[in-house]
Amino acid sequence: MHWLPIALSLAVLAAVLAARLRRRREEARAYLKGVRSMISDDPDSAIEALSDAARLGSPEAVETYLALGELFRRTGDVPRAIRLHRNMLHRPGLDPSRRVQVERELADDYRRAGMLSEAAGTYRPLAEGDPAAAAGLRDVLVAGGSYEEAIEVQRRLCPPDRRLLAHLLAGLSRAGAGAPDREAARRAVEADGTSADALLARSEAEAAAGEAGAAAASAAEALRAEAESALLAWPALSAIPADRALAAVEEVLRGSPEDARLLFLRARLLFRQGETARALAEVRQALERDEDGEVTLLLRELLRKAEAPAPSELAARHDLMVAAFVRQARPLRCQHCGAGSAVRAWRCPRCGRFDAYP
Predict the structure, then answer these.
(1) Sign of torsion, CA 174 175 178 182?
(2) SS3 letters across the chain
(3) 332-333 and 340-341 strand pairing
(4) Is the pTM of this model over 0.85?
């Protein structure tokens, strides 16, 4: 009978192994179902399937939980993502290397929820050894207006991104309550002399110092450097005397006479000079040449925010509104997170990426 305990032990071991194999197969099926649901853009089914997979509790469940948290965040259920990642951190036996990943995911949740101080506090301990956490901390600091600390974080990242550094320095130049910081603008251009953001920051600083000629030259240089960002030049152009600003735009237009963005900038400057008839004709010309819809979208936004017109301007305003709203124009889409925007900006307001639009 000595063989009986051995047989029983083998039977128990076989049952345990079979149960474990069955559980892993069930988890794999549930995970695969979740992935298929995500691919088919059925987030509710994906959440249900991934939840089933995570509850099975195998060592691979951490991956499933992370996928589930990402899905919660993607569908806008950020509070649920926060709860999930907090619970994961309290889970006994969580591998230290995975803990860093979960903490970074939690920081991403806080950032998405607009909880900037919580996000920064979670990113900071991770930033030294985790480039993704350092980048997250930098972006949170920018969102909170802490440009100087964001610049220091960016300088520690490797390899250095000089274009991004130029954006940060340009932001620092504009961040104060008073006149633009000319030294920060100078450093922005030094970091990347082809950055329209940096060149326009320099233009704004020069205009504030009363150097209209230099400001106009810097604005023209920015317009030549990045034609796609031309509509973002208006703050700089509006700070320069109208005749100087108009001359700068016309100089660039000579090289790109069909550019809808430049035509629209010229129209705005003509309005500023009181040349309404010429300005209206220029707006219509810009709309005709507006192939990607960006001028149309900006005109709609400006008309929406504009004060009520005087009776003598009512007919012209009506014509502009009709021209702007009958045209087909799709919102700009961030190349990183897909968020839509009616107007271009240096960075996506949702994910915080610079140079976010095509």
Answers:
(1) negative
(2) CCHHHHHHHHHHHHHHHHHHHHHHHHHHHHHHHHHHHHHCCCHHHHHHHHHHHHHCCCCCHHHHHHHHHHHHHHCCCHHHHHHHHHHHHCCCCCCHHHHHHHHHHHHHHHHHCCCHHHHHHHHHHHHCCCHHHHHHHHHHHHHCCCHHHHHHHHHHCCCCCHHHHHHHHHHHHHHCCCCCCHHHHHHHHHHCCCCHHHHHHHHHHHHHCCCHHHHHHHHHHHHHHCHHHHHHHHHHHHCCCHHHHHHHHHHHHCCCCCCHHHHHHHHHHHHHCCCHHHHHHHHHHHHHCCCCCHHHHHHHHHHHHCCCCCHHHHHHHHHHHHHHHHCCCCCEECCCCCCEECCCCCECCCCCCECCCC
(3) antiparallel
(4) no
3-class state of residue 60 by DSSP? coil
Please give the DSSP secondary-structure letter assigned to residue 307: P
Neighbours of 159 (CB within 10 A): 5
- Look at residue 117 in the predicted model and tell me its pLDDT: 94
Q: Tell me, what's the pLDDT at 35?
A: 42
| Type of residue at 176 | G
Cα–Cα distances in angstroms (integers) from residue 126 to residues 108, 139, 155, in the given order: 12, 14, 16
Structural domain spans, the chain: 226-349
Q: Which long-range contacts link 163-166 to residues 24+ away (Cβ below 8 Å)?
A: 163/191, 163/192, 163/195, 163/354, 163/355, 164/354, 165/191, 165/192, 166/191, 166/192, 166/195, 166/197, 166/198
pLDDT single digits (tens) 105-123? 999 999 999 999 999 999 9
The CA angle 65-71-77, to the nearest 5 degrees, is: 105
pLDDT at res. 40? 43
Alpha helical stretches, state H, 75-181: 78-89, 96-112, 116-127, 131-143, 147-156, 162-175
Which top CATH class is 226-349?
mainly alpha
- 313-337 confidence digits (pLDDT tens): 788 778 888 888 888 888 889 998 8
Q: From 168, 164, 195, select the one nearest 184 (Cα to Cα).
A: 168
- Span 166-192, average pLDDT: 94
